[in-house]
Design brief:
CATH topology: Nuclear Transport Factor 2, Chain: A
Order of helices and strands: HHHHHHEEEE
Number of helices: 6
Distance between the termini: 21 Å
Number of domains: 1
Shape: globular
Radius of gyration: 14 Å
Strand content: 35-45%
CATH class: Alpha Beta
Length: about 110
């Protein structure tokens, strides 16, 4: 989430792309990442502010049958919440982003 916030603030998605799993990097370019997050950037969604809150998980963090770690939840700030769904792939003893969705939504 910090990498998404930094990319949105600077307009430079190269570091976020570098943090992704090799398969994700092959399938998605830096420019495609920038396009994906254009609305958050244009709306100046402050993900950094959201990170000061503890996330709530809509499903418990879990490792699926393929060995991927999934985190799905949000930072429930008012009036807008930041929601995320992130899939991490095991790569060389660590975790790298395999899929990423971040959106601003009305708090419920």
């Amino acid at each position: 989430m910090v990498a998404v916030d930094n990319a949105n603030r600077t307009g430079n998605y190269a570091v976020l792309h570098a943090l992704c799993a090799p398969e994700f990097q092959r399938q998605t370019t830096v420019d495609e990442l920038a396009s994906t997050f254009a609305k958050l950037r244009e709306n100046r969604v402050d993900i950094g502010r959201a990170l000061l809150l503890n996330p709530s998980y809509h499903i418990p963090p879990q490792i699926n049958d393929q060995g991927y770690l999934r985190l799905r939840g949000g930072f429930e700030s008012r009036p807008q919440a930041v929601r995320f769904d992130i899939l991490f792939a095991p790569v060389n003893g660590g975790w790298r982003i395999a899929a990423l969705s971040v959106a601003e939504m009305d708090s419920t």
